[in-house]
Amino acid sequence: MRKLIAEDKVAAVIGPLSSAECETGMPVAKQLECPSIGPTSAKPGLLKGLQPWCFRNTMTDDKMFAGSLPAFRRLYPEIKKFALVVDVKEALAKSFGETVMPPGLKAAGYTVVNEKDPITIEVGQQDMSAAVTRLKFLNVDAVAIGASYPEASTFAMEMKRQGAKIPGLGGIANFAQPLITMGGDAVEGWVFCATG
């Protein structure tokens, strides 16, 4: 960001893309008084104190997630209890899993059985067997997953392997064709929020 603004003398920057990158780059844009637009930075509160120089062109995660809950309820009216799964190494997934999903689920009338002690996974993790085993012992109706699509699909495939036949609900980081390509029928019936 500093090079683009100070050396290349750009008039504005479209980007950074992700919320984590915006947390680092946008304060520089503000400091150097150059407009910056984050087209996919959905983390709530990200732009606090960065106006009038920094903007986003997407809805925040909390609003997208709230919009996905009625669709989930229509598909699964019997669901009452969720288990929370959070990728603790990926910034957007961690924020979504810890600060967006629990209050959103509770506001919609669901119970999150492990809000204070979520099942944790990490970006790049291939073996999800222990995490899914823990999920099975929680005796829930559904899983709320704060993870990007590679980890969400890997988690779903392990759920299928272990016979954990419950639906999943997740965020914008899952809304990608590779989730379906990677997860196949293991992610069939899962619901993920997105902007339209």
What key phrases describe this protein's structure?
196 residues; 9 strands; alpha/beta
Characterise this structure.
The protein has helices at 2-7, 19-31, 61-75, 91-107, 129-137, 149-162, 177-183; strands at residues 13-14, 36-38, 54-56, 81-87, 111-112, 119-121, 142-146, 168-170, 191-192. The chain is built from seven helices and nine strands; from the N terminus they run αβαββαβαββαβαβαβ. It starts with a helix and ends with a strand. It is an alpha/beta fold. α6 (149-162) packs parallel to α7 (177-183). It is elongated. The strands form two sheets. Strands 4, 5, 6, 7, 8 and 9 form a six-stranded parallel β-sheet that branches.
Estimated helix fraction = 40-55%
Please state the CA-atom Rg, rounded to the nearest Å. 18 Å
Question: Whole-Å distance between the termini?
Answer: 29 Å
Overall mean pLDDT: 91
Largest sheet: 6 strands, parallel
Order of helices and strands: HEHEEHEHEEHEHEHE
Record field, number of beta strands = 9
The total count of helices amounts to 7
Strand content: 15-25%
Unreliable segments (pLDDT under 50, ≥5 consecutive)? none
Shape: elongated
- Helix and strand content put the structural class at alpha/beta
